[in-house]
Specification:
single chain, 346 residues, alpha/beta, OB fold (Dihydrolipoamide Acetyltransferase, E2P), Ribonucleotide Reductase Protein R1, domain 1, 3 domains, 6-stranded mixed sheet
Length: 346
């Protein structure tokens, strides 16, 4: 992805906007400091961020008599970027609340934005549900990007093949063999359909007692799954584009929901592409768990795995121990990383 060039006037406007934002944040921090010194803020309480709105977050109190109450809070600028799932310390203020401290994250899912800046998406996650469907068409390259991100974040990934009621003889020829590849690797697959309620009991069972984030292309049915799993939430569901069978974005901010039987679910904004520019290319192989056993076993230390003599990966491909689909995907992702302006090598 090429960096966007701006002219002198655009650069001046960007700098002006950033300066105004910084000034507003400093004024807000000064106001909070004054409230702290004047004793206008309440006592410290524990909470969890359940949604994020720019400079404001919704915090659910998790202890005391106010447990379960949701308060919209300002954030101290020195805390960095807070995300849905973060556990925080907050205090009541005259107009709402203030997040004053961030507790250590057990895990976090990050992705780079269009400027190549690495940003957290959600925190304290136990598992990632990668939702795919036949419409919009599932692509192994996108699934593998999610899997790499999950593996390198030490978060358990599970693939959900949604809209199984739409599988027919024609699309079964490509979707089922692709899913079988992930089964052979050892990934858990859940087959689901909100139209027929197929697989929903298995989803409930998996989600119980853990914090799970839903990811996937727009239009694969994440919001429909949330509506069925959590009656009363009533998330907006978008129709597919008739022209390209691509989804329209309906979720605009990550939200955390409590599952009645236990556990939490985070629904994230639709992500059509999941860039991995921030990862060192040498670490990419670690994101493909079936390729890890062959790392360091090539005849030559500088092996590029391009049919060099004694390449451990070529031998694994020839023996059928490694999927050709997955190795091609690894090569494609590696090439896109090396070509990116945001690659650590550039």
């Amino acid at each position: 992805m090429a960096k966007r060039k701006v002219n002198r006037r655009q650069a001046w406007r960007i700098e002006k906007i950033q300066a105004e934002r910084k000034a507003r944040a400093e004024r807000k921090d000064a106001q909070i400091d004054a409230q702290l010194e004047g004793g206008d803020l309440g006592s410290e309480q524990h909470g969890i961020i359940i949604s994020h709105y720019g400079k404001l977050v919704d915090v659910e109190a998790t202890d005391g008599s106010e447990a379960g109450d949701i308060v919209r809070c300002h954030m101290r600028t020195h805390l960095g970027q807070l995300v849905t799932g973060d556990r925080v310390i907050w205090r009541k203020s005259p107009d709402a609340g203030v997040v004053v401290a961030l507790e250590e994250r057990a895990s976090e899912l990050k992705r780079p934005n269009s400027q190549g800046e690495l940003k957290p998406v959600a925190a304290n996650i136990d598992s990632i549900l990668i939702v795919v469907a036949v419409e919009p068409r599932a692509h192994a390259s996108l699934i593998d990007r999610y899997l790499v991100a999950a593996e390198l974040s030490d978060i358990e990934p599970v693939i959900v093949l949604n809209k199984t009621d739409l599988i027919n003889e024609e699309n079964a020829e490509w979707i089922l063999p692709m899913i079988d590849t992930y089964i052979e690797i050892g990934y858990k697959i859940i087959y689901a359909s909100t139209s027929t309620n197929h697989g929903l009991d298995e989803l409930y069972e998996f989600l119980a007692g853990r914090t799970t984030v839903f990811v996937g292309q727009s239009g694969v049915g994440k919001s429909s799954l949330v509506n069925v799993l959590l009656p009363g939430v009533d998330m907006k569901v978008g129709a597919l584009s008739d022209t390209h069978k691509k989804g329209k974005h309906t979720t605009t901010t990550a939200r955390l929901f409590h599952i009645p039987g236990g556990g939490d679910l985070i629904d994230s904004p639709g992500i059509r592409e999941f860039g991995l520019w921030h990862i060192d290319p040498e670490r990419l192989l670690d994101g493909f768990k079936e390729l890890r056993p062959y790392i360091g076993h090539c005849k030559f230390r500088d092996c590029a795995h391009e049919e060099e003599p004694g390449c451990a990966f070529d031998e694994a491909l020839e023996s059928g121990a490694v999927s050709e689909q997955r190795f091609i995907s690894y090569k494609q992702i590696l090439l896109s990383m090396l070509d990116s302006d945001f690659s650590p090598r550039n």
